[in-house]
Write a structure and sequence with these properties.
The protein is mainly beta. It is built from 14 helices and 61 strands. Its EC number is 3.2.1.23.
């Protein structure tokens, strides 16, 4: 193909396809009804995925002439796997940008133009043969996803051109395929005019990233299947209008028969097929079309929902005049009804609560070229963690994902492949794309049509989304009207009209991104006209998702609040090797990519390698479909589900005290949806003093498609104390035996020491520092620089960096590293030794630190902070202690098992837990504050022989145990940059500022979770040997 024609195609927004067939549903077709009913792999299909010959060149001008011709030899070319990104196969480099177009700063490129010097192009070539049973039939080439544009040839004959990376391009290749060996060639371009419409917040890569197949068609073929399924008669009767569009020959004498099966497809397990409806009819002919149409009516229907994803199986046969089957096709059908009434979103007549996530198709190894294995893992993980909805941010996903959501039960907001956020920076919003520009109209309408026509039959889809962050204008409004006119069964979503209310009619929702809970409530309590939806919220970058409960609680108070989609599901981190050859998870900039937005791509509640993030603990709890309130003699269970009675669960309960179990039990649960059920139990407290925890859990009663029996989905706890009775006539605590005094206080020239049975505790007189804690022959102070000392600093989280905390609060870093000693007093107080130090922290703030060591070596520590006005907030308040690495076995009684923070602890459960320092290191791609445990009662740290210390406080406290100091964490941008650790770092905190999560580019933690430096604080704890 002449290079000038290629350039013309790539730069013309009105030329986005050539020879592409009309968009159609994603159903499969078969040669027999049995195959269709079973949903087998298509026999009339040949996969071209696999190994291709490949040549990578810097731009289209460098493509070898006539490489697509049969006589051209690819000898010396490389090979590449399909599907895959070129960049992850060793060609070029992946580039991560948020809103910037990838060529920004490299070439001056006007809208719809493309870079002239650098437009990486891949030349793909392979050969294929048709199996015998496909020969002589009409043939189609299906390319499920190619980024971002391509030309295609077969045997040197031009097939066509296509843009839109995330919907199929289908071509008729009947006349181009011959017997024997066939050569297919693709010229794939990184950039085209379509790139202006694909400015999503993700890695910029190219290539054939989804499957390629050749499919054979019978003489008469069901080209499209349109099933409009709904509910009637009080949501008890299933109705559907089915329209088939056919092409080929013989329609005049052919007829269509159909059968509807109940119970063939369910999430739990296949049931026996049972045909409940059947019929047949003729095909209607016009000059240009052949169609068949029939209706389904199912009394006492089992409706589809995410809770009970009941699917029927519709099997259709096309027969010739003698009754022989020409083709059979099948489609799963779910009967459900989506409505908006009085600004409330309803599903099957019940108000819908969306507990959702935004989900990129992504894998740390494959990028967006994921396979069935990753999708199946994702669907099970979502179900196990109470996530009931997904927004396909920001492009249509692979068809198999919708099939899984149909089967397992996930509500889907299907989003058009459209984002032009980078055009907002052109200076004037009336220049944003696609805006009102006529030359972009057909391109965006084509993208909307491609998504709807492919996905329309999936019951999981409850809403069509026009796109993401593309401002507003006539073109977007026209897209929304297309959705409404083509499909009246689903509402239309778009967020950006909140910036330009002239286009209010584009969306059926009041959709927002990153509104605070206060802002959301302000809308909800002022006569809302539309359902309120947070299409993106709780920005989960690094250590985040604080105050998530403030959002979920709005669901209880405002029926007009639909809920929302957390941003986002998975870290977009990619595997890369460091200088030693070890793999690590990389982010923007690590591949030499510029411009880039560094680790802004890592906002997942799971990591790029699909390891769950500690944030998942909070999400799972706040999204749980049951609330459990365990009491002494009953458990109140609030079923938040709309349709399911909970009979697939067992209710399990347990009464314990600091890990010791006193009572337990279980029963099969059954409680009506939307109701509170009271289940008898026996968790009456014994007389033995102490703090008791009642825990009730909902676990799967039997194996399911997404989890084994015993998998916990929900839990609730209550805490109650039994106080120790006071002895008559004696104050509490008096009468207890005190240890015999066997200590010596040694007041040296530079040191002040306390020596007793098996311990030596030494302080430096000049600074008041604890310079030795010698216990049973082992030293617990790793070095003098990192002994037990006041701590005001933490390794900044991504949210901290976003709100400039490191710059704003830098004085507290200095106060942690270099506090100014004002006075030290070392004295004997009766049998005890006391060391008191006063620190000047700057700008009027003072710290008084008091150690008191008693006869048995118990060290009581009191830290008193005197605040001052006009100081930045405290990142934390407490103490840090670096111990030798032998002391690494940690047990605590508090919230666990994952890390918890003041604003992210609802999902933690009270119990006795164990951890190793390295296990406290959360897999946040950029090292930062992590591993904290809030609401701790006591914690122990021991060596392998059991020697160690126990920390207790009269008040709840926080702690972490890691291999690194907060300063070492702060200095590393990747985990491989962290130094070799030879120590255990213990942080004991009275409190620390919450992690926040409203957004990661300026939002603070909410005020009640911020430590006010103007207020006085006190922290007391004891250190005793165990």
């Amino acid at each position: 193909m002449k290079r000038e024609i290629v350039l013309q195609h790539l730069t013309d927004p009105e030329f986005f396809q050539e020879n592409r067939l009309a968009r159609a549903s994603d159903h499969f077709w078969y040669e027999t009804e049995a195959e269709a009913l079973a949903g087998m792999d298509m026999r009339l299909s040949v996969s071209l995925s696999g190994t291709w010959s490949f040549l990578y060149v810097p731009n289209p001008e460098s493509v070898p002439e006539d490489f697509e011709q049969p006589g051209f030899s690819c000898l010396g070319w490389d090979t590449i796997q399909v599907p895959a990104h070129m960049e992850l196969s060793g060609y070029g480099y992946p580039q991560y940008t948020d809103t910037d177009y990838p060529w920004d700063g490299r070439e001056a490129v006007a809208p719809h133009q493309i870079p002239g010097e650098s437009n990486p192009t891949g030349c793909y070539v392979r050969s294929f043969r048709l199996p015998e049973h496909m020969r002589g039939k009409r043939l189609q080439l299906h390319l499920e996803g190619v980024e971002t544009a391509f030309h295609c040839w077969i045997n040197g004959c031009y097939v066509g051109y296509s843009e839109d990376s995330y919907t199929p391009a289908v071509f008729d290749i009947t006349e181009k395929v011959r017997e024997g060996e066939n050569k297919i060639a693709l010229e794939v371009y990184r950039f085209s005019s379509g790139s202006w419409l694909e400015d999503q917040d993700f890695w910029r890569m190219g290539g054939i990233m989804r499957d390629v197949t050749v499919r054979a068609l019978p003489d008469l073929h069901i080209r499209d299947m349109d099933i409009r399924a709904g509910l009637a008669k009080g949501y008890t009767t299933g109705t559907a209008c089915v329209k088939l569009s056919l092409d080929g020959t013989g329609a005049e004498k052919a007829k269509v028969s159909w059968e509807l099966y109940d119970g063939r497809i369910r999430m739990e397990a296949p049931a026996e097929e049972k045909c409940i409806l059947s019929g047949e009819g003729r095909i209607s002919m016009t000059e240009s079309t052949a169609t068949a149409q029939f209706a389904l009516n199912v009394p006492e229907v089992k409706p589809w929902s995410a809770e009970i994803p009941w699917l029927y199986r519709l099997v259709i046969a096309v027969r010739d005049e003698e009754g022989r089957i020409l083709e059979s096709a099948a489609q799963n059908v779910g009967f459900r009804q989506v409505e908006i009434r009085d600004a409330v979103l309803y599903f099957n007549g019940k108000r819908l609560r969306i507990n959702g996530v935004n989900r990129h198709e992504f894998s740390a190894r494959k990028g967006r070229a994921i396979g069935k294995e990753e999708m199946e893992w994702d669907i099970r993980f979502l179900k196990q963690n109470n996530i009931n909805a997904v927004r396909t941010s920001h492009y249509p996903n692979q068809s198999y994902w919708y099939e899984l959501c149909d089967r397992f039960g996930i509500y889907v907001m299907d989003e058009t492949n459209l984002e032009t956020h980078g055009t907002w920076h052109l200076g004037k919003y009336d220049h944003t794309l696609p805006g009102d520009f006529p030359k972009w109209h057909e391109a965006v309408m084509s993208r909307a049509e491609a998504m709807l026509e492919r996905d329309k039959n999936h019951p999981c889809i409850f809403s069509w989304s026009v796109g993401n962050e593309s401002w507003s204008g006539q073109n977007l409004y026209d897209m929304s009207m297309y959705f409404r006119n083509r499909d009246q069964s689903r509402p239309v979503h778009y967020e950006n009209v909140c910036h330009d209310r002239r286009w209010e009619g584009t969306t059926d929702f009041e959709s927002r991104m990153y509104a605070t809970p206060v802002q959301a409530e302000e809308y909800l309590k002022n006569d809302p006209k539309k359902p309120y939806l947070l299409c993106e919220y709780s920005h989960a970058m690094g250590n985040s998702c604080g105050n998530l409960d403030e959002y979920t609680e709005l669901l209880d108070r405002y029926p007009q609040y639909c809920g929302g989609f957390i941003w986002d599901y998975i870290d977009q981190s990619l595997y890369k090797k460091d200088g030693t050859g070890r793999e690590y998870l990389a982010y923007g900039g690590d591949f030499g990519d510029r411009p880039c937005n560094e680790n802004f791509c890592t906002n997942g509640i799971i990591c790029g390698d699909r390891t769950p993030s500690p944030k998942m603990q909070e999400v799972k709890y706040l999204y749980q479909p049951f609330r459990l309130y365990p009491e002494a003699e009953e458990i109140r269970v609030e079923n938040l589900q709309l349709f399911e009675d909970g009979s697939r669960f067992r209710l399990v309960w347990q009464l314990e005290k600091e890990g010791e179990v006193f009572a337990k039990g279980s029963c099969r649960f059954q409680g009506a949806p939307g109701q509170v059920t009271r289940v008898p139990c026996d968790m009456v407290l014994p007389e033995e003093p102490g703090e008791y925890v009642r825990t009730a859990s909902m676990v799967l009663a039997e194996d399911t498609a997404y989890g084994k029996a015993g998998t916990e989905l929900c839990f609730g706890q209550s805490v109650e104390r039994v106080d120790e009775p006071e002895k008559p006539g004696m104050p509490a605590g008096e009468g207890q035996q005190k240890p015999e005094s066997r200590i010596r206080i040694i007041d040296g020239d530079s040191s002040f020491s306390v020596k007793g049975n098996g311990f030596l505790i030494m302080f430096q007189k000049m600074t008041g520092k604890l310079i030795s804690y010698h216990l049973n022959g082992k030293e617990l102070v790793y070095n003098l620089a990192d002994t037990l000392h006041p701590e005001f600093w933490r390794a900044p989280t991504d949210n901290d960096r976003g709100n400039k905390m490191p710059e704003r609060c830098v004085m507290w870093k200095g106060a942690s590293l270099y506090p100014k000693v004002e006075r030290v007093d070392c004295t004997a107080k009766g049998e005890n030794a006391v060391v008191e130090t006063v620190y000047q922290l700057g700008q009027g703030a003072l710290l008084q630190l008091r150690y008191e060591v008693d006869a048995d070596g118990t060290m009581s520590v009191t830290e008193r902070y005197e605040g001052a006005k006009d100081l930045p907030e405290l990142p934390c308040f407490g103490m840090s202690w670096k111990l030798p690495e032998d002391f690494r076995y940690v047990t605590w009684y508090g919230l666990g098992p994952e890390e918890t923070y003041s604003d992210r602890k609802r999902g933690g459960r009270l119990g006795v837990w164990k951890v190793l320092p390295q296990d406290g290191m959360a897999d946040y791609v950029r090292p930062q504050e992590c591993g904290n445990h809030a609401d701790t009662r006591w914690m122990e740290i021991r060596d392998e022989k059991g020697n160690g210390i126990c920390i207790e406080s009269p008040e709840l406290f926080e702690f972490s145990v890691l291999p690194y100091t907060c300063h070492e964490l702060e200095n590393a941008k990747h985990h491989y940059e962290l130094p070799q650790s030879y120590a255990t770092v213990l942080r004991l905190l009275e409190a620390q500022t919450g992690v926040g999560g409203d957004n990661s580019w300026g939002a603070w933690a909410h005020e009640k979770y911020v430590l006010d430096s103007g207020k006085n604080r006190e922290f007391q704890f004891t250190v005793r040997r165990v």
